[in-house]
Amino acid sequence: MFDWLDQLIALLVYDTIGLSSESRWGHALHFFFYDSIKILLLLFLIIFLMGIVNSYFPIDRIRAFLSRNKLYGAEYLLASTFGAITPFCSCSSVPLFIGFVKGGIPLGVTFAFLITSPLVNEVAIALFIGMFGLKTTLLYVGSGIVLGTLGGYVLGRLKLEPLLSDWTQGVMQQAQEEDAFNEGRRTFTQRLPEITREAFGIVKTVLLYVLIGIGIGAAMHGFIPTGFFEQYISKENPFAVPIAVILGVPMYSNAAGVLPIIQVMVQKGVPLGTAIAFMMAVVGLSLPEGTLLKKVMSWKLIAIFFGTITFLIIVSGYLFNLIL
Looking at residues 116-145, what average pLDDT do you find? Predict the structure, then answer.
């Protein structure tokens, strides 16, 4: 699909710049230019397509639907799927989470959204397709939605509402349902310029993260020897997945920043399932997210949330290693 780009970058790096194809700098620069252009192209395309989807399924409409209808368990899957089509990191998902709670949506359902939203979005999908192919991307997207659905259901069954902060409980008592269907209809032609601007805006927002992540990945690709990571978190080490996940939880990045690094880790010998579990921990859970959630949750509830999702990510990592 991108053979033309690979040949163009090779011409630039090896012929125009004059670096050897066997040198470390040659490998690093080829990786950086090729992945940067490929990922940004995919990023814009998928964000544009998802912008079309999002324009027909606005947030207020989803909130109202979940608030007004009893779906006999399907609401967890719906909220998780909605999280998958929203382009938010773990921190930027929190304001929407607060809005869901204020709107009267059950806590477990809001957790399903909060879990999936940073894990699966158009940014992650675009990067995954470019780096690991369609099969792995579909498996990742499906597992992310399942993880959000299962995590939301488990947390919902625990009846954790009393552990919400006093501020949240007060807001929930006073909140009134918003009218979700008061927006005028616009044709696709009228929406298209706005969708295009939003796609460019999102790419511009994550551009620095993409370039930093690919830059780190390029340095690792060119200068870290094959097998460096494998000796610490190899497939033979039964504790590799939990070690990777526990190391990832305190970190904070979005998919654009961490996926290029994950790609190089896999190239250097780390099992794909272990690397994906590490990425899920970095992207889906973070200390800044926990700080933001303190506004709506007690520390005990935050600990339960983080602990439950950490456990599910570890299980996912083992399953990925068995399947991939």
Answer: 85
Question: What local confidence, expressed as pLDDT, does residue 165 receive?
Answer: 76
Q: Pick the residue with more confidence: 1 or 107?
A: 107
Please name the residue ranges forming H helices in 57-121. 59-68, 74-84, 93-102, 107-119
Give me the long-range contacts of 297-302 (CB less than 8 A, separation at least 24). 297/163, 297/164, 297/165, 297/168, 298/163, 298/164, 298/165, 300/163, 301/160, 301/163, 301/164
Q: How many CA atoms lie within 13 A of 74 on its CB side?
A: 5
Q: How far apart are CA 145 and CA 83, in angstroms?
A: 8
**Range from 190-199, 215-224, 302-311 carrying the lowest mean pLDDT:** 215-224
Q: Are 207 and 254 in contact (CB under 8 A)?
A: no
Q: How far apart are CA 126 and CA 118, in angstroms?
A: 14
Rounded Cα distance between 290 and 142, Å, is 25
- What are the structure tokens assigned to 269, written together? 């010998």
Residues in CB range of 170: below 8 A, 6 or more apart: none
* 25 token code pair: 């700098």
Residue indicated by tokens 């939003």: 198
pLDDT band at residue 270 using 50, 70 and 90 as cut-offs: confident
Contact 262, 275 (CB under 8 A): yes
Residue 114 in contact with residue 80, Cβ under 8 Å?
no
Give residues with Cβ within 8 angstroms of 96, minimum separation 6: 59, 86, 88, 113, 117
- pLDDT at residue 177 in the model: 42
What would the DSSP string read from start to end of 125-167?
HHHHHHHHHHHHHHHHHHHHHHHHHHHHHHHHHTT-GGGB-HH
